[in-house]
Amino acid sequence: MPGLNRVLQGVLHYRKTVRSDLVEQFHRVRDNPNPTAVFFTCMDSRMLPARITQSQVGDMFVVRNSGNMIPHARNYGMSGFEVSVTTEPAALELAVKRGKINHVIVCGHSDCKAINTLYNLHQCPKNFDPESPMDHWLRRHGYSSIQKLERRLKSEPGLELQFTAENALLLDFKAKIDPEDKFNIEDKLSQINTLQQLVHIASHGFLHEFLENHQVFLHAMWFDIYTGDMYMFSKQQKQFLMIDEETATTLNQEVDDEIAAFEH
Ligand SMILES: [Zn+2]
């Protein structure tokens, strides 16, 4: 099979090139791994988190799925939050409680096939296949994103959408989605969905003390596959900013400001 052979050839190439360097890094971080972030992103084959962020061995946890969704705590049925049978909240708990990471990043991207499907299911509900796990997954965890998209499309581009957790003290911000109106509808939905997942994350009971004490911060990033630019959401400026030398300082300062405000 040509597809498999490409994977096998890749492993052979890896053995000849980066393997020894990686093993050295594995040894170095074995006794003292110090990951600082958990990175939720889409499983899209074009998304390469380690390369885009230049992260190294031991730097961050990565969780990937279709459409970078994190189930909301209310989706666990009768017993309510903290009862999880899905991967994402469990991974979040592992990263925060055991890994002691400080930053949770959700990263969406342009031309996301999952988001395109979510939008299509909204436009043509008859396309929903009750037998399709993917359709259920997207509709259940993308429902609130679709509602916000509707609000955005019915209004001026500069509309400020409200993103608030059940406990507004934990997460509460406004967002102007694509105020210059340069992205298509699906990409707008993808940006909204990336922010909406922060609300879902904040719904989990095990996270509340970490958020309250400013030990964990929630961030949204968005990768434009056509230009290779990475964006990060600025709560102060209420929009995604393209990450460059200038905005990186501003974005970092925002978190420092938040910590300083909490400590005073
Ligand atoms: Zn995607």
UniProtKB/TrEMBL annotation:
Entries under SMART domains matching the protein: Pro_CA (SM00947)
Native source species: Panagrellus redivivus
Free-text cofactor note: Binds 1 zinc ion per subunit.
Function: Reversible hydration of carbon dioxide.
Residues where Zn(2+) binds: C42, D44, H109, C112
GO molecular function: carbonate dehydratase activity; zinc ion binding
UniProt xrefs under InterPro entries: Carbonic_anhydrase (IPR001765), Carbonic_anhydrase_sf (IPR036874)
Cofactor(s) it depends on: Zn(2+)
PANTHER family listed in its UniProt record: CARBONIC ANHYDRASE (PTHR11002)
Signal sequence residues: none
Positions in coiled-coil regions: none
Major enzyme class: lyase
Keywords: Lyase, Metal-binding, Zinc
Substrates-to-products reaction catalysed: hydrogencarbonate + H(+) = CO2 + H2O
Similarity comment text for this entry: Belongs to the beta-class carbonic anhydrase family.
E.C. number(s) listed in UniProt: 4.2.1.1
Protein name: Carbonic anhydrase
